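Ticket #4471: structure export looks truncated?
Reporter: QA, pipeline team
Priority: medium

Steps to reproduce: submit the single chain below to the structure queue and open the exported record.
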Amino acid sequence: NLSLAEAQDYAVETNRSLRNASLAVQKAYAARWQTIASMLPSADLSWGYTSMMGYKMNFGGMPIEMPDNGTLGITAAVGINGQAIVGALLNNVAIDMQKLNLQQSEDNLRANIKTSYASVLVLQNVVTLLESSLANIEQMAEMTQRSVDVGAAEQTTADLIKVRVNTLKNNINANLRSTQLALNALKVLLDVPAETELVLTSTLEDFLSAEAVVALLGNDFILENNLNYQLLEKNVELAKKNVHMAGWAYGPTVALAYQYNQKDYFGKKEGLNMTPPNAVSLNISMPLWSSGKRAAGVVEKKIALEEARNTFAETANNLGIQNEQLRYNLQNGYETYMNEKDNMEVTQRVFESTTNKFNQGAASNLDLVNASNDLITAQSSYVQAVLTLVNAQVEL
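Actual output as written to the record:
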């Protein structure tokens, strides 16, 4: 048993696609730490055993024994350059972008839940309307057939109404199948087993109130709060740091290392050992010439930055236009919904009035069929208007 808000919250907790978006944020944190760790000291331990199999080295006519030995080595090193530092800053931007993607995924999931939830309610409502119409038509079909049986009406009239009964039954069955499809789509979003029975506790009135529409239209559009805007803003920032990283290809790399070695001959006379127990090294390297490769890399990143800026500016402008269009769509959708709701109520009254007249002999079978067709058409238009209104709300 789920209201709309409960369905949205449940989906946020259980949907696996959203979980993957959350894991992407964790991966971005792990990638940043890898970059930072590459600039921190690292240490390695090694141990080895060597046997010369009794070999003796001849050194100036003097045999020198080469006994078996074991070695223990410890190496500590640290290296840093400008590109590694900028890389860590790039990872920070990547984390921010993954967080925005997570928020966007959650917003999209909530929007899809709302649309799917509303679709089920609309289709259930349609089935209820059609079943009401069917009950009336079946009652007329029964009355007409009795009139035919006593010679007060023609069989053609009864046949036409029977066709209308079958048409309504087909429409009901089609909408029942569509309702099941919509429920299955909602189950997919909720990530629940196929055999789960869903009972929707919210009503269409919760979606279609004038207050909700007016409140949404009354909200100011703050461009900086739009997630697409924020993502593209981060993309520009990322492109800037890529330019800096490409520029640091000209920078130096500094590496410092310490090495400790110990060799043990297992109590035997020490053999030829030319390995110092301690060693410290400092290395500074500077690139000199790469046939223009690094320069081309900087140019490429600058072009990418300009592209990112153009896309960002274009999107910022388009979002403002899109906001105006979506506001218009919502206002128009609500007006259309109110009109179609009124039309359906009017055609329902006309159908009931025509039915009464037909029973009293004041309306023809053609009038009855036309009134029935008008009612079905009005119901279909009403359903489309409801879905259009809900979609307009979700999009804005």
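Status: closed, not a bug. The export was complete when the record was re-opened. Leaving a note from the reviewer for reference: The chain has a mean pLDDT of 88.
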